[in-house]
């Protein structure tokens, strides 16, 4: 399937029961990806890390020698992305350069429009016949899936998040300077929350969870309780 993300054909399979959608938003390194994976596994849902899509667009522009802040170059890369594109599996997407490029292309309205339909289809028809989907990003509860049954906004102070990211980079053997990680995170926060289109912010009906003083297990327990209260579902044993 090489159709762009913006133009995937409709499935011919019979419509499944309405999928449960869990929207998990929050700033960088707040722990939303860690939480989303655990929630998806616990409930048997499919998981989409939507940041990967923006990272892929940003890296594609850089590789083509372009500027991620150039609207036309960013839009072109977004329209060329398709679900089987090998770039989506590359570890190069996990670098800080990819994150910074992602947050620049993410401010381009045409990029967001090109990626929107794929995300919505994933939520409505989770792959593998899963009964639900967990999507994590910045605008899932506000724009992509405003009707999600459960919405969480995972946050933490920028200092705590920078520390978490620094430790993660050290674990992965990637050299990093604490003050640089903090400054990069502040710059990304500013771009993500101040852009005109789909800025980072909690949906009005989101459960906002400050994880600054919570470990990943505590966050998971609170999220499970919230999802249970909204959907009546319990995690698989
Ligand atoms: N509650 C927590 N307490 C301490 N560390 C955490 C917690 N949750 C996640 N982490 C760690 O913080 C780092 C960032 O977590 P994660 O990648 O899940 O964040 P994210 O919000 O998805 O980040 P990004 O948006 O940049 O992809 C990881 O190393 C993860 O193991
Ligand atoms: N729904 C989303 C998801 C991501 N972005 C932008 O991509 C950048 C990278 O995202 P990560 O979750 O992988 O850190 C992020 O800083 C955003 O600019 C987005 O706009 N909307």
From TrEMBL:
Binding site for ATP: 26-34
Chief site of localization: cytoplasm
Compartment(s) of residence: Cytoplasm
Family matches, as InterPro entries: Cytidylate_kin (IPR003136), Cytidylate_kinase_dom (IPR011994), P-loop_NTPase (IPR027417)
Keywords, sorted A to Z: ATP-binding, Cytoplasm, Kinase, Nucleotide-binding, Transferase
Catalytic activity: CMP + ATP = CDP + ADP; dCMP + ATP = dCDP + ADP
GO biological process: pyrimidine nucleotide metabolic process
Any one GO MF annotation of this record: CMP kinase activity
EC number(s) per entry: 2.7.4.25
Start and end residues of each Cytidylate kinase domain: 22-226
Lineage top rank: taxon: Bacteria
GO CC term (a single one): cytoplasm
Family: Belongs to the cytidylate kinase family. Type 1 subfamily.
HAMAP family named in the record: Cytidyl_kinase_type1
Name recorded for this polypeptide: Cytidylate kinase
Species classification: Bacteria, Pseudomonadati, Pseudomonadota, Alphaproteobacteria, Rhodospirillales
Gene encoding the protein: cmk
């Amino acid at each position: 399937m090489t159709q762009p993300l913006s133009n995937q054909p409709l499935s011919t399979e019979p419509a499944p029961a309405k999928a449960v959608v869990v929207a998990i938003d929050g700033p960088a390194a707040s722990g939303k990806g860690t939480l989303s994976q655990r929630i998806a596994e616990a409930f048997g849902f499919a998981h989409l890390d939507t940041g990967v899509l923006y990272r892929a667009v940003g890296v594609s522009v850089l590789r083509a020698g372009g500027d991620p802040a150039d609207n036309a170059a960013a839009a072109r890369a977004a329209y060329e992305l398709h679900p089987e594109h090998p770039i989506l599996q590359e570890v190069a997407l996990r670098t800080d350069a990819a994150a910074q490029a992602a947050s620049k292309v993410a401010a381009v309205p045409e990029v967001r429009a090109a990626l929107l339909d794929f995300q919505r289809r994933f939520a409505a028809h989770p792959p593998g016949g899963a009964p639900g989907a967990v999507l994590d990003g910045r605008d899932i509860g506000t724009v992509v899936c405003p009707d999600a049954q459960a919405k969480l906004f995972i946050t933490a102070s920028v200092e705590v998040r920078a520390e978490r990211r620094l430790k993660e980079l050290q674990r992965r053997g990637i050299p990093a300077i604490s003050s640089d990680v903090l400054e990069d995170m502040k710059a990304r926060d500013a771009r993500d929350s101040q852009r005109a289109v789909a800025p980072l912010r909690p949906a009005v009906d989101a459960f906002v969870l400050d994880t600054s003083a919570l470990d990943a297990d505590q966050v998971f327990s609170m999220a499970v309780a919230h999802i249970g209260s909204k959907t009546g579902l319990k995690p698989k044993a």
